[in-house]
Design brief:
Length: 193
């Protein structure tokens, strides 16, 4: 894939109905923490960015759906997805295309209506198929080279929010978000000294 102009990216983003992504390295920073649990078994912990979390609420409020496809399994991901009302959660699938196909069938969408955010080789097959392929700033160089768009923010540190804002702005839904949070661009207040 070739890098697109910002106009081409916005045109593709305007058609997106579903945002899918990998988890480790995209929705999280990719760091895995292991601690002993109360029963003595090892427990895995992950950190999630709160700005990305609010982004999911904005995305869903605007009528778009989201999903996660991860090569690893983690109860923390299930819990975070539940909190954020993420519609599709597929874990333990290093080969991700079968999950992608199931999601498209269930959502009744075409590939050009899907954006996918990835960071490593296992994400490449889905990026090739998606209407808008996105690599996070700290993705493997090969994925950054093939993506339509590369975020400025690294995975786990606002990259998902950046993509959500791109989608909402490209679909002329951003003003509604600003109004919901009393940040309307048309109602800016000037503070005098």
């Amino acid at each position: 894939m070739n890098k697109l102009t910002i106009t081409d990216i916005k045109n593709r983003a305007a058609n997106i109905k579903l945002l899918l992504m990998d988890v480790d390295g995209v929705f999280t920073d990719g760091t895995l923490y292991y601690f002993p649990g109360p029963d003595g078994k090892v427990v895995e912990f992950k950190g999630f960015n709160s700005h990305d979390g609010l982004g999911f609420h904005m995305l869903h409020d605007a009528g778009l759906k989201s999903g996660l496809i991860s090569g690893r399994e983690s109860p923390a991901v299930v819990e975070r997805a539940k909190i954020l009302n993420i519609a599709y959660v597929y874990q333990g699938h290093l080969e991700k295309e079968a999950s992608y196909n199931e999601i498209l069938k269930d959502a009744k969408l075409k590939e050009e209506q899907v954006a996918f955010i990835g960071d490593d080789f296992t994400d490449a097959p889905l990026m090739v198929r998606s209407g808008l392929s996105i690599a996070v700033a700290n993705a493997r160089q090969e994925l950054r080279a093939m993506a339509h768009y590369t975020t400025e923010a690294p995975g786990g540190d606002g990259a998902v929010r950046e993509v959500i804002e791109l989608l909402l702005k490209s679909q002329n839904l951003w003003q509604g978000v600003l109004e919901k949070y009393k940040l309307s661009e048309t109602k800016k207040k000037t503070i005098g000294l």
